[in-house]
Design a protein that fits this description.
Blueprint (H helix, E strand, L loop, with lengths): L1 H21 L24 H12 L6 E12 L6 E11 L3 E14 L3 E9 L6 E4 L5 H12 L1 E3 L4 E3 L5 E13 L5 E12 L3 E14 L4 E9 L4 E4 L1 H6 L2 H10 L2 E2 L6 E2 L6 E6 L3 E3 L2 E10 L6 E12 L6 E13 L5 E9 L5 E13 L2 E10 L10 E8 L2 E11 L7 E9 L6 E4 L3 E7 L2
Antiparallel strand pairs: 1-2, 2-3, 3-4, 3-5, 6-7, 8-9, 9-10, 10-11, 10-12, 13-14, 15-17, 16-17, 17-18, 18-19, 20-21, 20-27, 21-22, 22-23, 23-24, 24-25, 25-26, 26-27
Length: about 450
């Protein structure tokens, strides 16, 4: 009985062997879409499957290390049973990504060597899949800003991206997406701070990256700046160009009134308030506007704006005042009223008399009224007023008298005209001539 069992087993084994030899297709891995690759042993567990892997590796058909092997289709030659087109999905892993390649491998059977690969091609019906392990990082973004972005030009400043100038960089967010064509992108928002000569500029960029499957790496495809960069000036510059220093420099600057050699100085105590514009830098220059609001408004109201320029000569002294000019935007809204003044001989404190103005109509750059000159010792009631018309040019008034006005004895003469200008310091209307001067005070 035992001999019969042994004999039956031998016959079964022979039959199975004959069947296998008779149908080589059965030696190929089944198309069941299951991963048959053992990563630890680096084998599919199938001789023909391992032959396919070795062939694709020798052909450098894929990147990375194999971690999965799936047969998803087979097109066998049932007539000869010695040829098959095996459709294989190969999953591989690199340092940066995981890939799924789709190959159609043509295999032929050799009675002596078994199944051998004759050729392969990418499956045109399938796309190579790629999924990066991570998006871009800070070092990548920083390197690309240096190599490709180069610089940022703001409205009043510019900065350059270099290894030395970038003082801070971070990836605020990123999003990896794969489209229907297998195109892989990473849209990142990157924050960067760049140090310039006198400031630190901070802003964000949208940086669009694409994953290059051939080189197994991200590359910068496009970028754009978000809202304008903000700048923070260095402490050293803020000390050299502080509000207090600028106002002090303006106060020491001598200006002249029109073509007269009459010095004028403007200090902050002449005005009710002030406002500085933002710093504007260009090369070694810094520009800034200082606007004062007129405090004394007995006759004129408005503002006086100084355009200030500082230059850094790079000699260790920092920024120094290079020029200062002024402009004004004032109105004679408060001009109408009664005024009086003591008249003095020019260059002295010798009193020559008193003068009285009544300014009535004001409009369209003109004014009118009457003037009364009262010599020293005379009675004001005994003096008849003289009418006048005036032309207002900013804070300068040119008066034309309808009759001669007798200014007194000595150096004073008969006169058909006079000039008044608004003094920003005292808030008074002043006449400054070669022979006399006075400052009008407005009656309450």
């Amino acid at each position: 009985m035992k001999k019969k069992l042994v004999l039956s087993g031998m016959i079964l084994g022979i039959c199975v062997g004959l069947c296998a030899c008779g149908n080589p297709l059965k030696q190929l891995p089944e198309a069941n879409e299951e991963n048959i690759y053992n990563a630890d042993d680096e084998t599919t567990g199938n001789e023909a499957g391992d032959e396919i892997l070795d062939y694709l590796e020798d052909e450098s058909a894929y990147k990375g290390k194999v971690i999965g092997f799936v047969v998803y289709d087979r097109d066998d030659n049932e007539e000869t049973k010695e040829k098959s087109e095996v459709s294989v999905a190969l999953t591989t892993e690199t340092e940066n990504a995981e890939y799924i390649y789709h190959f159609v491998v043509t295999c032929k059977y050799d009675k002596d060597k078994g199944w051998r690969v004759k050729e392969y091609e990418m499956d045109s019906k399938e796309k190579t899949e790629c999924m990066p392990k991570a998006g871009i990082d800070v070092d990548m973004a920083k390197e690309d800003m240096i190599d490709y972005v180069y610089s940022y030009y703001g409205e009043d400043f510019s900065c350059y991206f270099t290894e030395e100038s970038i003082v801070d960089c971070s990836v605020l967010s990123d999003s990896i997406e794969v489209d229907d064509d297998g195109y892989v992108t990473d849209n990142a928002v990157v924050s960067v701070s760049v140090e310039g000569d006198y400031f630190t500029a901070t802003g964000t960029l949208n940086m669009e990256y694409c994953f290059d499957k051939s080189y197994d790496e991200w590359y910068l495809d496009d970028y754009e700046f978000n809202e304008d960069f903000t700048i923070e000036y260095s402490e050293e510059v803020l000390e050299q160009l502080s509000d207090e220093i600028m106002m002090a420099d303006v106060a020491e600057k001598e200006f002249t009134l029109f073509n007269y050699d009459y010095p004028m100085y403007f200090s902050s105590d002449m005005f009710s308030s002030y406002e500085f514009s933002e710093y504007q830098f260009s090369g070694n220059y810094c520009y800034r506007d200082l606007t004062y609001t007129i405090a004394n408004t007995e006759s004129f109201s408005g503002t006086l704006t100084f355009n200030i320029g500082y230059y850094d000569y790079d000699d260790g002294n920092g920024y120094v005042l290079d020029y200062c000019s002024y402009d004004y935007d004032i109105s004679p809204d408060n001009l109408p009223g009664d005024y009086s003044a003591v008249v003095y001989t020019a260059g002295t404190t010798d009193k020559e008399g008193e003068i009285y103005y009544t300014i009535t109509d004001v409009g369209n750059g003109e004014c009118s009224g009457s003037v009364k000159w009262v010599p020293e010792g005379a009675n004001a009631d005994s003096v008849e007023p003289v009418t006048f018309t005036g032309t207002i040019n900013s804070y300068y008034i040119s008066l034309s008298f309808d009759e001669k006005v007798y200014y007194g004895l000595g150096s004073f003469d008969y006169c058909y005209y006079d000039y008044l200008y608004f003094d920003f310091g005292s808030g008074q209307l002043i006449s400054q001539g070669y022979d006399r001067y006075y400052s009008l005070e407005k009656a309450e």
